[in-house]
Amino acid sequence: MEGRLLLKNCAVFRADGRVRHGMAVVVEEGIIRRVAPDAQVPVLPGDWEVACRGRLVAPGLVDCHSHLVNGQLLPPNGDFLLRQPRSRLERMRQVANLLIPEDVEILTRFAAARALLDGVTLVVDHLSCPADVSGGLDAQARAADALGLRLVASHSTHSLDGAAQADAQADANADFVRRHRDHPRVRGALGFHASFTCEDALLSRISRLREELNAPLVFHLAESEDDLSATYAAHGRRVVPRLDALGLLGPFAIAGYPRAVERAEAERLAASGTFVALTPRATRSFERVGESAEGPLSSLHLVGLGTGGHGTLQEELSAALAGMLHLARSGRMPDLDDSLAHLFVSGPAELCTRIYGRPSGGVDEGSLADLVVYDAIPAADPETGYSPFLLGQIVPSRVAWTVVNGRVCVREGQLLGSDYVDLARDAAAAMARVWSRARLGS
């Protein structure tokens, strides 16, 4: 976009619950250049002026662990959720093996559009397209680039189909990372499925590739008790110590689904700088018994919310609130509001900053221009600027504008450059083709 994007007369969000009314935000070349009282920022020739009329401007949301494509192909209905973990895995593998890049691109376009309309500006995705890893990841990159979504794309490689295929998938994933080192929005990450589906040889290979490429690494951390018991039976270690020994933890590791993690292991994750993505709503759906992961992970600094490809981040925040209330009432979480803000904003912002090398997560000068204008005018204390439970006001509010890297992707609730209904129709047709090949109706 040429010229400046100018958000006039807005309320500016802060993660500590304070808001600044009557502000203007100037965006230029993908960066927030100025945040000042509205009267001090005149509209210049060539500016794209957005009349916010007092509405709230906040940093874009980050989906820290998603399955944009595979999550659509197997929706979490009752039949699927009531299966045993191994049966669910086999069903997911059966469908993923039938994906082709054309399907991946169509389904990613629809999922990216849906994310942008929900105020999500960055998605960390974990694709499973074993028949054509390179083609699938390239298709995701094209789709995200076309819609304007910021995407970190990885492949969910595993050893279940043999060492040769696993090595080929890891190498294809690494080639994608090399090709997307410097893209302004789409970046590549290495990936593997989970400890219990990967042999030492594959994980050692991925560890070496990670060191060579200095790339992010996406994986499922301790997916279930089945993951934990299978890992211990095969390797004589729990999941976290095994991954640690193989050099797979660290500042650019993004670990999803931490459902079987002890407190000492959580402390090791924190010490290593591993980022942990919680999916509290999904955890309660997939696990039969056991305490949720919020307890042992409540002290982690590098933590955020993911959807797992199902539902919205707003729904995950509501589920996190329910789980954290229990912790707060038992004295294990002294500041509930601050912890929720960290899960929803501050932790994901740190992840985005690490990957893209520029401050994010705030409406601040010099930060990435990943912004959302909500149809919400927050009430605030006139002396302190504090607005009680600001996150709670955001969750039910409509997303009016979504801006990614300075590009307007959603304007007054409408997707720019694509028709949402057309994308939905194409996605439904693609899913029908995959389901027909998989004979899901039989």
From TrEMBL:
Residues 57-407 form the Amidohydrolase-related domain. One of its GO terms (molecular function) is hydrolase activity, acting on carbon-nitrogen (but not peptide) bonds. Gene3D superfamilies: Metal-dependent hydrolases, Urease, subunit C, domain 1. This is Amidohydrolase. InterPro entries: Amidohydro-rel, Metal-dep_hydrolase_composite, Metal_Hydrolase, MTA/SAH_deaminase. Keywords: Hydrolase. Pfam families: Amidohydro_1 (PF01979).
